[in-house]
TrEMBL record:
The keyword Transmembrane helix applies. It is a multi-pass membrane protein. GO terms for cellular component: plasma membrane. Residues 3-163 form the Glycosyltransferase 2-like domain. Keywords: Glycosyltransferase, Membrane, Transferase, Transmembrane, Transmembrane helix. It is found in: Membrane. Residues 297-324 are annotated as: Disordered. PANTHER family: PROPHAGE BACTOPRENOL GLUCOSYL TRANSFERASE HOMOLOG, UNDECAPRENYL-PHOSPHATE 4-DEOXY-4-FORMAMIDO-L-ARABINOSE TRANSFERASE-RELATED. It holds the Pfam family Glycos_transf_2. This is Glycosyltransferase family 2 protein. It comes from Candidatus Faeciplasma gallinarum. GO terms for molecular function: glycosyltransferase activity. The keyword Glycosyltransferase applies. Residues 297-310 have a biased composition (Basic and acidic residues).
Length: 324
């Protein structure tokens, strides 16, 4: 069976259509499947729509968080609950085209353990967004040696890969990079980013920058290396200013001293700030708080029990699900 994990946040206008389109595509390809919508603490009626879809088709399952924990938590909650031999992770707005899933499934049947969806075009993304995304992925790639160019969360992963990801102890996760870091036999399919079926893009510029910083610091040490380089450059600049002052270059004693102090102070503060940010990430990890908290699932109505999983998350009981 194939599980499709679909993180959702305020997607009341997309969920019903997304469920119907994916099921139709997979039914036409005769692929046994389940759909798992993870409601990441939506403020709209997303959960009501998910519940209604579950009543219509029991292959559609739902998990609702107690609050918004972010897309990464939603992805891992879906993987924790899935019962399939493989799982596809995709967005709820159909920008990841379901028509590509049968090709992913075919490659998996041929032996691929990770089938990565890569963007052959980036739709209507702005030039600024593309430049920022390209810079971010180059930083990740340079430190991890993982090919992140045009990558996305749209992936099919084998059960062994799922279990490997779920066994990782860190609380701050970056699925897009981790699914490449684990290795395994990987194939690639290309797709064009489609337009959203309904609603507006949920990610603001500030959210994207915050997401990039969190993932960059949780997956690489590059900012620390950059701070070391900046510190070295500041020191060299200060030395140059001192030499110029000794050589009699007219700068004014106060201006020279102020310039040196500002350069050194600015560089030191920047390096301290980066170091403190890493310390805060370490602090988040050592607290061992769960990645997410489940408030309810569509199975609750049937009296299914819950259990505490290895991460301490209140997750649906899938102990008797297993592989088909």
């Amino acid at each position: 069976m194939l599980s499709v994990v679909i993180p959702s946040y305020n997607e009341e206008g997309n969920i019903k259509n997304t469920a119907q389109v994916i099921s139709r595509v997979l039914d036409e390809s005769k692929i046994e499947h389940e759909l798992i919508f993870v409601d990441d603490g939506s403020k709209d009626s997303s959960w009501d729509v998910i519940s209604a879809e579950h009543e219509r088709d029991e292959r559609i399952r739902g998990i609702r968080f107690s609050r918004n924990f972010g897309k990464e938590g939603a992805i891992f909650a879906g993987l924790e609950a899935c019962r399939g031999d493989a799982a596809v992770v995709m967005d709820c707005d159909l920008q990841h085209p379901p028509q590509v899933i049968p090709k992913m499934y075919e490659l998996w049947q041929e032996g691929a353990q990770v089938v990565e969806g890569k963007k052959s075009s980036r739709g209507r993304e702005s030039l600024v967004y593309r430049a920022m995304a390209g810079f971010f992925y180059r930083l990740i790639q340079s430190s991890s040696k993982i090919d992140m160019k045009d990558s996305s969360d749209f992936k099919l992963i084998d059960r062994r890969v799922i279990d490997t990801l779920l066994a990782m102890p860190e609380r701050i996760t970056f699925f897009r990079a981790l699914s490449g870091w684990v290795g395994f036999d990987t194939k690639t399919v290309y797709y064009d980013v489609a337009e959203r079926f309904s609603g507006e893009r949920k990610w603001t510029a500030g959210m994207l920058i915050g997401y990039a910083i969190r993932n960059l610091t949780s997956f690489t040490g590059i900012p620390l290396y950059i701070s070391s380089v900046v510190g070295l450059l500041v020191m060299l600049a200060a030395v140059v200013l001192i030499i110029l002052n000794i050589a009699g270059v007219p700068m004014g004693s106060f201006d020279a001293a102020a310039s040196v102090l500002m350069l050194i102070g600015g560089g030191v503060l920047e390096c301290i700030g980066i170091g403190c940010y890493y310390i805060s990430r370490i602090y988040e990890e050592v607290k061992h708080r769960p990645r997410y908290i489940v408030a309810k699932t569509t199975e609750d109505k049937k009296g299914n029990k819950r259990k505490e999983n290895a991460g301490g998350d209140n997750a649906p009981d899938t102990s008797d699900g297993g592989k088909p």
